[in-house]
Design a protein that fits this description.
Length: 295
């Protein structure tokens, strides 16, 4: 019988804390990288109940993990259990990656990094100087908005169903960055006006994914895509939302959230291990990653 040497006495591990975690493709992503790069490191998902989060973190610290990812619903709550958090992640109000450095736990936000890396990779341009409209004002919107501001966007407008949440994100941007930021209600005709002026439109709402399949957050608004706009949907499942198919029909460059998901994982792996995943491997891995999401 062949002995399986994948996990031995020297193997280090990273975890994923969330609820649910069964759908996560992060274990396949991280474990594939380790196998290909021959790194003695494994990644394991843990489903954690809300009241157990603090103990789960204490346990991971005691076990001297390399680090861990944090997913829904703990990206905000985790911050109070960490020793330090990057300024960017604090502005984003969310941590999705934690690194253990000599027993101290440091929080990062690689969702935003993943968004920016995939935007650059898939559109061939960066966020610098762009006029951007973000639809939605939840956790993903705040991370994307702060990252766009950090990367030098010219204007960042937030339009959301619940306008007070859009106001909060615009205030954070206006308090910390020099870009022009304003907030709107999604149903307001001002959103339709600003929509035409923007180079980049980003959907950060969950409209278009289960259980809201087949709808777009723009339904019932006067917003119309124009040819040449870059249109990004952070939703990755389904890969083609109504928002994106409407944009493609209008001649826009469209990008879905698969790249964001992929690159948040790559950035987390690089933070934990200090290893830069080689570009030639990234390309091949990305194709395989899209395959497992389809399956
Ligand atoms: P969240 O904090 O719950 O925010 C959801 C936002 O969507 C809120 O602004 C909500 O508005 C809005 N919304 C929901 N249904 C809507 C509708 N029918 N019309 C208009 N607005 C609607 O969630 P989140 O964490 O930001 O996640 C949002 C999406 O991003 C999810 O689809 C998630 O899967 C995706 N995501 C993707 C990645 C990636 O790696 N690709 C990473 C993170 C998140 P109200 O406040 O009015 O309810």
């Amino acid at each position: 019988m062949q002995i399986d040497n994948r996990v031995t006495g020297t193997t280090r591990f990273a975890g994923l804390l969330g609820n649910p975690v069964e759908h996560s493709v992060s274990p396949q992503l991280h474990n594939t990288i380790s196998t290909y790069l021959n790194v003695d490191f494994v990644y394991i998902p843990f489903k954690v109940e809300k009241e157990d989060l603090e103990n789960a973190v204490k346990g991971l610290r005691a076990l001297n993990v390399v680090g861990f990812n944090v997913t829904t619903p703990f990206k905000k709550d985790i911050i109070k259990y960490l020793d330090d958090t990057t300024k960017q992640a604090l502005l984003m109000g969310a941590v999705n990656t934690v690194k253990n450095i000599d027993g101290r736990l440091y929080g990062y936000n690689t969702d935003a990094e993943g968004f920016a890396r995939s935007f650059k990779e898939e559109t061939g341009t960066g966020l610098k100087g762009k006029k951007i409209l973000i639809i939605g004002a939840g956790g993903a919107a705040r991370a994307v908005a702060v990252k766009a501001a950090i990367d030098g966007a010219d204007s960042i407008y937030i339009s959301a169903r619940t306008k007070s949440k859009a106001d909060d994100i615009a205030s954070i941007l206006n308090d910390h960055f020099t870009c022009d930021s304003k907030s709107y209600a999604l149903a307001d005709e001002q959103t339709a006006r600003i929509f035409n002026e923007c180079d980049v439109i980003i959907n950060t709402t969950s409209a278009g994914m289960k259980p809201q399949l087949g709808i777009s957050p723009l339904d019932g608004t006067g917003c119309r895509f124009s040819e040449g706009q870059i249109v990004y949907d952070v939703i990755y499942n389904p890969p083609l939302t109504k928002f994106l198919s409407d944009a493609a029909a209008a001649g826009c460059k469209t990008v879905n959230g698969i790249g964001m998901l992929f690159y948040q994982g790559i950035s987390a792996y690089e933070i934990w291990t200090g290893i830069k995943v080689p570009p030639e491997m990234l390309k091949e891995l990305y194709e395989s990653f899209k395959g497992i999401l389809k399956a």
